[in-house]
Amino acid sequence: MSLRFRQLQAFHAIVETGTVTGAAEQLGISQPGISNLLSQLERQTRLKLFERSKGRLVPTPEAGVLFQEVDTVVRGLDHVAQAVSDLQNKQAGQLQVASPHALSFGFMPKLIARFAADRPDMSISFQSQYSTKIQEWVLAGLFEIGVCEMPLTYDAFDSHVVQVETLLALPEGSPLARYDVLTPDLLAPEPFIVMGPDHMTHRRTREAFQHAGVPWHTKVHTHLFKNVLSFVQEGMGVALLDPFSLNFDHQGGFVTRPFRPAVLLDLAVITSRARPLSSLGSQFLDVLLDELRLYAATRRG
């Protein structure tokens, strides 16, 4: 079966807007053109994708399944188009920074805003992503500066490594808050919210419990520190979290305590070795490193 991208794009737009008119406006083509693309798709797939209800097109269950796959394709191409646009429009007055999600919900926006305060003509390109993707972006020249978690996949960066200490987050009102410092022995019966098994905080926490000879009870596995903290706030368990996620969360519902032995998170600020930094990028790099060093851990046992 040979499906055309334009058919999938029209289908995606109809699901999102609920009407042929809305899809036509979103894609900038005629309503008959949208209807024709949908008819072609239904004919090729031999699936009924919509029912009409009060002037709107309601997706069938089959359409719901198809949309989950199509959504990834359509949004992925949108990201490619944006990447091409960013590469085409790079300019000396543009700050280009990428960071992992943990730094993107408060730390980095505040730092960029402070940097931009006396630079009114500066434009900003900022994205948050997983660390491997950030390395690819910096390598490709899409971003001048990246912050990512170690390890580095490519031997093509100038890097500055900063280790930050995680803190144990407890649900508000937890009896464990009476302790000034928490250890594996005190936490043996507690359910943990954790990042995936390949994440450095997962491995290092597991090692701390193994070294103490204490069982480690993991209850929820997820992929973002922001999600980890949300589960703690819901009372699902405790978690070791980076200070950025904790310091810039204003919803409350948790308290923090030091954990010993300390579990460290290794971050790297990277730039491409193959490209000189712009003057603007160099200035921001200095500001970023100064700010990150305020979070740098002093190794403790």
TrEMBL record:
Pfam families: HTH_1, LysR_substrate. Keywords: Activator, DNA-binding, Transcription, Transcription regulation. Residues 3-60 form the HTH lysR-type domain. PANTHER family: TRANSCRIPTIONAL ACTIVATOR PROTEIN LYSR. Belongs to the LysR transcriptional regulatory family. This is LysR family transcriptional regulator.
